[in-house]
Amino acid sequence: MELSPEGGLQSHPAGWNRYSSGCYLFVTPSRNWDAAVTFCKRLGASLTSIRSPSEYRLLQHWTRSEGYYTSWIGGSYYRGWRWLDGSLFSYQNWYSQLSVTYNPCVYLNTGRGWSNSRCSIARPFICQKRSC
């Protein structure tokens, strides 16, 4: 489902899913990591951070239920692996790590944790905000 960030989303927009203290939106069509970051910002959100195994399992399930195997999340490498808010990874679920020089962006893999890749690859992505 294509969503338009110019569409003036309301406080309880369709498509957002509440979990714990946040709300999540699975977005297609696929975009590269930088375009996904921009899209989420326009919604008043950011690419998701994953802080616990239960949150990972939930996002893994949503990605799979949408018919995809991967989705961008908000982790990237800059002097260490960090979330978009600048915090270091407190929970990690790596399946594989490639060279950070060419692969600084993190994606969720529905079968095996998360991995890093080139940011230019188009993938669906998950936006997160504090309330819906």
From TrEMBL:
PROSITE patterns: C_TYPE_LECTIN_1 (PS00615), C_TYPE_LECTIN_2 (PS50041). InterPro entries: C-type_lectin-like (IPR001304), C-type_lectin-like/link_sf (IPR016186), C-type_lectin/snaclec_domain (IPR050111), C-type_lectin_CS (IPR018378), CTDL_fold (IPR016187). Residues 19-128 form the C-type lectin domain. It holds the Pfam family Lectin_C. The keyword Disulfide bond applies. The keyword Disulfide bond applies. Keywords: Disulfide bond. This is C-type lectin domain-containing protein. It comes from Cynoglossus semilaevis.
